[in-house]
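pasting Endonuclease/exonuclease/phosphatase for the record, 282 residues
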Amino acid sequence: MHRIGRSLPASMLLSLRDRRMQKANAAALKTTATTGTLVASYNVHKCIGVDRKFDPDRTIRVIREIDPDVIALQEADNRFGDRDGLLDLPRLERETGLVPVPISATGKGHGWHGNVLLFKKGVVRDVHQIKLPGLEPRGAVVAEIDLDGSRTLRIIAAHLGLLRRSRSQQARVVLDLMNSPDERPTLLLGDLNEWRLGNRSALNTLHATFGPQPPAVPTFPSNLPLLALDRIMANRHGMIAAIDAHDTPLSRVASDHLPLTAFVRLERVDDNALMSPASQRV
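structre below
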Protein backbone atom coordinates (compact mmCIF):
# COMPACT_ATOMS: atom_id res chain seq x y z
CA MET A 1 0.00 0.00 0.00
CA HIS A 2 1.27 3.48 -0.83
CA ARG A 3 0.28 6.75 0.76
CA ILE A 4 -1.30 9.26 -1.60
CA GLY A 5 -0.18 12.89 -1.68
CA ARG A 6 -1.86 15.93 -3.17
CA SER A 7 0.56 15.90 -6.11
CA LEU A 8 -0.39 12.36 -7.15
CA PRO A 9 -2.90 13.36 -9.91
CA ALA A 10 -0.27 15.59 -11.54
CA SER A 11 2.28 12.78 -11.34
CA MET A 12 -0.18 10.39 -12.97
CA LEU A 13 -0.91 12.78 -15.83
CA LEU A 14 2.80 13.30 -16.44
CA SER A 15 3.34 9.55 -16.33
CA LEU A 16 0.66 8.96 -18.96
CA ARG A 17 2.25 11.57 -21.21
CA ASP A 18 5.73 10.13 -20.64
CA ARG A 19 4.52 6.59 -21.39
CA ARG A 20 3.42 7.68 -24.85
CA MET A 21 6.81 9.29 -25.45
CA GLN A 22 8.65 6.25 -24.11
CA LYS A 23 6.79 3.88 -26.41
CA ALA A 24 7.57 6.08 -29.38
CA ASN A 25 11.28 6.11 -28.49
CA ALA A 26 11.61 2.50 -27.26
CA ALA A 27 12.82 1.02 -30.54
CA ALA A 28 15.47 3.71 -30.97
CA LEU A 29 16.72 3.23 -27.41
CA LYS A 30 17.03 -0.52 -27.79
CA THR A 31 19.03 -0.28 -31.01
CA THR A 32 21.40 2.46 -29.86
CA ALA A 33 22.03 1.71 -26.19
CA THR A 34 21.72 -2.03 -25.56
CA THR A 35 25.38 -2.55 -24.78
CA GLY A 36 27.12 -2.79 -21.46
CA THR A 37 26.17 -4.36 -18.14
CA LEU A 38 22.44 -4.94 -17.75
CA VAL A 39 21.25 -3.97 -14.27
CA ALA A 40 17.75 -4.25 -12.86
CA SER A 41 15.67 -3.43 -9.82
CA TYR A 42 12.59 -5.48 -8.98
CA ASN A 43 10.19 -5.30 -6.05
CA VAL A 44 8.91 -8.88 -6.08
CA HIS A 45 6.10 -8.14 -3.58
CA LYS A 46 6.91 -11.26 -1.54
CA CYS A 47 6.27 -13.30 -4.72
CA ILE A 48 2.56 -12.43 -4.59
CA GLY A 49 1.13 -11.37 -7.93
CA VAL A 50 -1.73 -9.05 -8.78
CA ASP A 51 -3.86 -12.21 -8.93
CA ARG A 52 -3.05 -12.62 -5.18
CA LYS A 53 -1.29 -15.92 -5.80
CA PHE A 54 1.98 -16.71 -4.03
CA ASP A 55 4.18 -18.02 -6.84
CA PRO A 56 7.99 -17.89 -6.39
CA ASP A 57 8.41 -19.93 -9.58
CA ARG A 58 6.74 -17.13 -11.53
CA THR A 59 9.07 -14.58 -9.95
CA ILE A 60 12.10 -16.60 -11.05
CA ARG A 61 10.70 -16.81 -14.58
CA VAL A 62 10.44 -13.01 -14.71
CA ILE A 63 14.07 -12.68 -13.61
CA ARG A 64 15.02 -15.23 -16.26
CA GLU A 65 13.18 -13.12 -18.85
CA ILE A 66 15.21 -10.05 -17.87
CA ASP A 67 18.52 -11.98 -17.88
CA PRO A 68 20.37 -9.27 -15.92
CA ASP A 69 24.04 -9.12 -15.00
CA VAL A 70 23.11 -7.44 -11.71
CA ILE A 71 19.70 -7.24 -10.03
CA ALA A 72 18.47 -5.75 -6.77
CA LEU A 73 15.36 -7.40 -5.34
CA GLN A 74 13.08 -5.87 -2.74
CA GLU A 75 10.58 -7.73 -0.53
CA ALA A 76 12.35 -11.04 -1.17
CA ASP A 77 11.83 -12.15 2.46
CA ASN A 78 8.84 -12.40 4.74
CA ARG A 79 8.66 -9.23 6.79
CA PHE A 80 7.73 -10.79 10.14
CA GLY A 81 8.58 -13.87 12.18
CA ASP A 82 11.71 -15.66 10.97
CA ARG A 83 11.70 -13.45 7.85
CA ASP A 84 12.15 -16.51 5.66
CA GLY A 85 13.59 -16.07 2.20
CA LEU A 86 10.96 -16.71 -0.46
CA LEU A 87 12.99 -17.70 -3.52
CA ASP A 88 14.85 -20.87 -4.46
CA LEU A 89 18.29 -19.26 -4.75
CA PRO A 90 20.12 -22.45 -5.85
CA ARG A 91 17.60 -22.84 -8.68
CA LEU A 92 17.97 -19.17 -9.59
CA GLU A 93 21.74 -19.65 -9.83
CA ARG A 94 21.36 -22.76 -12.01
CA GLU A 95 18.97 -21.07 -14.41
CA THR A 96 20.44 -17.55 -14.55
CA GLY A 97 23.97 -17.65 -13.13
CA LEU A 98 22.99 -15.06 -10.51
CA VAL A 99 24.45 -15.39 -7.00
CA PRO A 100 23.66 -13.20 -3.99
CA VAL A 101 26.16 -10.77 -2.53
CA PRO A 102 27.07 -12.40 0.81
CA ILE A 103 25.67 -10.68 3.88
CA SER A 104 25.26 -11.46 7.56
CA ALA A 105 21.65 -12.55 7.30
CA THR A 106 19.40 -12.88 10.32
CA GLY A 107 17.05 -15.83 10.64
CA LYS A 108 16.28 -17.62 7.39
CA GLY A 109 16.10 -14.56 5.16
CA HIS A 110 17.85 -14.09 1.83
CA GLY A 111 18.69 -10.45 2.37
CA TRP A 112 18.77 -7.39 4.58
CA HIS A 113 15.30 -6.01 5.32
CA GLY A 114 14.15 -7.86 2.20
CA ASN A 115 16.90 -6.40 -0.03
CA VAL A 116 18.86 -8.99 -2.03
CA LEU A 117 21.61 -7.97 -4.46
CA LEU A 118 22.62 -10.62 -7.02
CA PHE A 119 25.26 -10.64 -9.75
CA LYS A 120 26.59 -13.05 -12.39
CA LYS A 121 30.32 -12.53 -12.76
CA GLY A 122 32.72 -10.59 -10.62
CA VAL A 123 34.44 -10.32 -7.27
CA VAL A 124 32.85 -8.71 -4.21
CA ARG A 125 35.44 -6.40 -2.67
CA ASP A 126 33.36 -5.03 0.19
CA VAL A 127 29.80 -5.16 1.49
CA HIS A 128 27.90 -3.33 4.22
CA GLN A 129 24.38 -3.62 5.61
CA ILE A 130 22.89 -0.24 6.48
CA LYS A 131 19.91 0.34 8.73
CA LEU A 132 17.87 3.27 7.43
CA PRO A 133 16.02 5.66 9.78
CA GLY A 134 12.25 5.95 9.91
CA LEU A 135 9.16 4.45 11.51
CA GLU A 136 9.29 1.31 9.37
CA PRO A 137 12.18 -1.19 9.38
CA ARG A 138 14.13 -0.35 6.22
CA GLY A 139 17.65 -1.04 5.03
CA ALA A 140 20.20 -0.85 2.24
CA VAL A 141 22.93 -3.17 0.99
CA VAL A 142 26.11 -1.43 -0.17
CA ALA A 143 28.55 -3.54 -2.19
CA GLU A 144 31.71 -2.84 -4.15
CA ILE A 145 32.07 -5.35 -6.99
CA ASP A 146 34.62 -5.88 -9.74
CA LEU A 147 32.27 -6.94 -12.53
CA ASP A 148 33.77 -9.47 -14.95
CA GLY A 149 37.21 -7.88 -15.13
CA SER A 150 35.82 -4.35 -15.31
CA ARG A 151 36.55 -1.55 -12.89
CA THR A 152 35.04 -1.55 -9.42
CA LEU A 153 31.43 -0.45 -9.19
CA ARG A 154 29.73 0.53 -5.96
CA ILE A 155 26.07 -0.51 -5.82
CA ILE A 156 23.58 0.74 -3.24
CA ALA A 157 20.45 -1.42 -3.22
CA ALA A 158 17.70 0.13 -1.12
CA HIS A 159 14.01 0.12 -0.33
CA LEU A 160 12.88 3.48 1.06
CA GLY A 161 9.90 4.07 3.31
CA LEU A 162 6.28 4.96 2.64
CA LEU A 163 6.42 8.22 4.62
CA ARG A 164 7.86 11.29 2.91
CA ARG A 165 9.73 12.39 6.03
CA SER A 166 11.32 8.96 6.33
CA ARG A 167 12.35 9.01 2.66
CA SER A 168 14.03 12.39 3.14
CA GLN A 169 15.98 11.07 6.14
CA GLN A 170 16.91 7.91 4.27
CA ALA A 171 18.10 9.86 1.22
CA ARG A 172 20.45 11.82 3.48
CA VAL A 173 21.87 8.56 4.83
CA VAL A 174 22.51 7.42 1.25
CA LEU A 175 24.47 10.62 0.63
CA ASP A 176 26.49 10.05 3.80
CA LEU A 177 27.46 6.63 2.42
CA MET A 178 29.07 8.33 -0.55
CA ASN A 179 31.62 10.18 1.64
CA SER A 180 32.49 12.62 -1.16
CA PRO A 181 31.25 13.25 -4.72
CA ASP A 182 34.54 12.12 -6.27
CA GLU A 183 34.15 8.56 -5.02
CA ARG A 184 34.16 5.55 -7.34
CA PRO A 185 31.35 5.07 -9.91
CA THR A 186 28.17 4.34 -7.96
CA LEU A 187 24.69 3.07 -8.76
CA LEU A 188 21.66 3.58 -6.56
CA LEU A 189 18.84 1.22 -7.42
CA GLY A 190 15.70 0.07 -5.71
CA ASP A 191 12.13 0.88 -4.80
CA LEU A 192 12.50 4.48 -3.61
CA ASN A 193 8.74 4.88 -3.09
CA GLU A 194 8.63 8.46 -4.40
CA TRP A 195 6.00 9.52 -6.92
CA ARG A 196 6.23 13.28 -6.42
CA LEU A 197 7.97 15.37 -9.06
CA GLY A 198 9.73 18.73 -8.84
CA ASN A 199 10.33 20.53 -5.57
CA ARG A 200 8.04 18.21 -3.58
CA SER A 201 10.14 15.13 -4.27
CA ALA A 202 11.86 13.66 -1.21
CA LEU A 203 14.64 12.53 -3.55
CA ASN A 204 15.85 16.07 -4.30
CA THR A 205 18.44 15.64 -1.55
CA LEU A 206 20.20 13.14 -3.82
CA HIS A 207 21.05 15.85 -6.36
CA ALA A 208 24.13 16.77 -4.35
CA THR A 209 25.77 13.59 -5.66
CA PHE A 210 23.55 12.01 -8.31
CA GLY A 211 22.63 15.22 -10.14
CA PRO A 212 19.97 15.35 -12.88
CA GLN A 213 18.79 11.97 -14.07
CA PRO A 214 17.00 10.62 -17.14
CA PRO A 215 13.19 10.88 -16.99
CA ALA A 216 11.67 8.56 -14.42
CA VAL A 217 9.93 5.48 -15.85
CA PRO A 218 6.57 4.40 -14.36
CA THR A 219 6.60 0.89 -12.88
CA PHE A 220 3.62 0.86 -10.50
CA PRO A 221 1.04 -0.60 -10.59
CA SER A 222 2.31 -3.30 -12.91
CA ASN A 223 -0.91 -3.74 -14.90
CA LEU A 224 -1.17 0.02 -15.62
CA PRO A 225 2.12 1.72 -14.68
CA LEU A 226 1.52 5.32 -13.62
CA LEU A 227 4.03 5.98 -10.83
CA ALA A 228 7.83 5.88 -11.03
CA LEU A 229 8.46 4.32 -7.62
CA ASP A 230 11.49 2.33 -8.77
CA ARG A 231 14.70 4.09 -9.80
CA ILE A 232 18.19 3.48 -11.15
CA MET A 233 20.60 6.39 -10.63
CA ALA A 234 24.31 6.96 -11.20
CA ASN A 235 26.85 9.50 -9.96
CA ARG A 236 28.56 9.87 -13.36
CA HIS A 237 27.33 11.40 -16.61
CA GLY A 238 26.87 8.85 -19.38
CA MET A 239 27.12 5.88 -17.04
CA ILE A 240 23.57 4.58 -17.51
CA ALA A 241 21.42 4.37 -20.62
CA ALA A 242 18.20 2.86 -21.96
CA ILE A 243 16.28 2.90 -18.67
CA ASP A 244 13.08 0.97 -19.28
CA ALA A 245 10.38 -1.05 -17.56
CA HIS A 246 10.43 -4.77 -18.28
CA ASP A 247 6.81 -4.96 -19.40
CA THR A 248 5.67 -8.44 -20.45
CA PRO A 249 2.49 -10.47 -19.89
CA LEU A 250 4.31 -12.40 -17.15
CA SER A 251 5.78 -9.39 -15.35
CA ARG A 252 2.42 -7.59 -15.35
CA VAL A 253 0.91 -10.30 -13.15
CA ALA A 254 3.89 -11.59 -11.10
CA SER A 255 4.13 -8.52 -8.80
CA ASP A 256 2.48 -5.15 -8.29
CA HIS A 257 5.72 -3.54 -9.61
CA LEU A 258 7.30 -3.95 -13.02
CA PRO A 259 11.06 -4.56 -13.02
CA LEU A 260 13.18 -1.56 -14.03
CA THR A 261 16.25 -2.11 -16.21
CA ALA A 262 19.18 -0.06 -17.51
CA PHE A 263 22.53 -0.56 -19.20
CA VAL A 264 25.71 0.51 -17.39
CA ARG A 265 28.73 1.39 -19.51
CA LEU A 266 31.71 1.70 -17.21
CA GLU A 267 34.20 1.85 -20.08
CA ARG A 268 32.68 5.19 -21.09
CA VAL A 269 32.76 6.71 -17.63
CA ASP A 270 34.90 9.82 -17.27
CA ASP A 271 36.02 10.18 -13.65
CA ASN A 272 35.90 13.94 -14.13
CA ALA A 273 32.31 13.82 -15.39
CA LEU A 274 30.76 13.94 -11.93
CA MET A 275 27.12 14.72 -11.49
CA SER A 276 26.34 18.15 -10.12
CA PRO A 277 23.19 19.72 -8.71
CA ALA A 278 20.95 21.19 -11.38
CA SER A 279 17.48 22.57 -11.79
CA GLN A 280 16.11 19.24 -13.05
CA ARG A 281 14.38 17.21 -10.33
CA VAL A 282 13.91 13.46 -10.08
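The radius of gyration is 17 Å.
The first helix runs from residue 8 to 32.
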